[in-house]
């Protein structure tokens, strides 16, 4: 069975390509990077350490909210 190509499906594909290109050009959102980090590392961190990180993690996500990761300056992190 062969899938049919409709104008709507082509439009959807082109829109997705545009979104990917925009993300590559502008950089990922801090919140997405932070969530990926947490998901990857939280299970490898000791429970008590993770509890200590969690509050700082949440404050940092709130502070940088929807900023692009490549727009955050080192001076903003050390505050």
Short description:
It is built from 4 helices and no strands. By secondary structure, the chain is mainly α.
Topology of this protein?
Blueprint: H1 7-26, H2 30-41, H3 47-64, H4 74-77
If you had to describe this structure to a student in words, what would you say it looks like?
The chain is an all-alpha fold. 68% of the residues lie in helices and 0% in strands. The chain contains 4 helices and no strands. The chain is elongated and about 55 Å long. The termini are far apart. The mean pLDDT is 86.
Major sheet: size, sense and barrel closure? none
The helix tally amounts to 4
Note the gap between the termini.
Answer: 59 Å
Beta-strand fraction estimate = under 5%
Series of secondary-structure elements, N-terminal to C-terminal:
HHHH
Question: What are the key terms here?
Answer:
mainly alpha, 4 helices, 79 residues, elongated
């Amino acid at each position: 069975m062969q899938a049919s190509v409709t104008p709507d499906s082509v439009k959807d594909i082109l829109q997705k390509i545009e979104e990917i290109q925009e993300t590559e050009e502008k950089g990922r959102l801090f919140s997405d990077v932070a969530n990926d980090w947490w998901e990857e590392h939280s299970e490898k961190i000791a429970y008590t350490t993770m509890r200590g990180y969690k509050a700082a993690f949440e404050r940092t996500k709130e502070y940088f909210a929807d900023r692009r990761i490549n727009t955050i300056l080192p001076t903003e992190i050390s505050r």
